[in-house]
Amino acid sequence: MKTWIHPETRKVTIECSCGQKFEVNSTIPWDIRVEICSKCHPFYTGEQRIVKTGAVDKFYARMKKAEELKKNSK
Fold first, then answer.
1. What whole-number distance in Å separates Cα of residue 16 and Cα of residue 56?
2. Parallel, antiparallel, or unpaired for β 21-26 and 32-34?
3. Cα separation values, 60 from 18, 42, 68, Å
4. Is 18 within a domain?
5. What is the distance between the alpha carbons of residues 21 and 11, in angstroms, rounded to a whole number?
6. pLDDT along the chain (74 residues), means of 10
7. So what's the pLDDT on residue 60?
8. Domain enclosing residue 35, as ranges
9. Phi, psi of 71, rounded to the nearest 5 degrees
10. In the Cβ-directed half-sphere of 2, how many Cα atoms lie within 13 Å?
11. Which of 4, 24, 40, 70 is 20 to 30 Å apart from 14, CA to CA?
């Protein structure tokens, strides 16, 4: 097997927004930050909750603003 054709692997730390950290072997040289992991993902935890990310946050902001406008116009 040719040794010079394989990329270098190193230990990197993956950090979730919930605070969970774990180390894995990877070919990228920097640490990784993720929004959701197996500790906080609803599929693994058994909780039913809405994971707010990106477009969902914008939708909830629009709905909240529309409700406030309705409430203020009365």
1. 19
2. unpaired
3. 21, 20, 12
4. yes
5. 13
6. 85 90 91 84 70 75 89 77
7. 87
8. 10-73
9. -65, -40
10. 4
11. 4
Residue 4 lies in a domain: no
Per the CB < 8 A criterion, the answer to whether 12 and 32 are in contact is: yes
Edge-to-edge strand order for the sheet containing 32-34?
21-26, 10-16, 32-34
Question: CA-CA distance, 74 to 71, in Å (whole number)?
Answer: 6
- DSSP class of residue 31? -
- Number of domains within the chain: 1
The predicted pLDDT at position 45 comes to 72
Tell me, what's the pLDDT at 53? Answer: 65
- Provide the CATH number for the domain around residue 26: 4.10.80.400
Taking the complete model, does pTM exceed 0.85, yes or no?
no
Question: Is residue 36 classed exposed, middle or buried when 0-12, 13-18 and 19+ CB atoms within 10 A define those classes?
Answer: middle
pLDDT at 13: 93
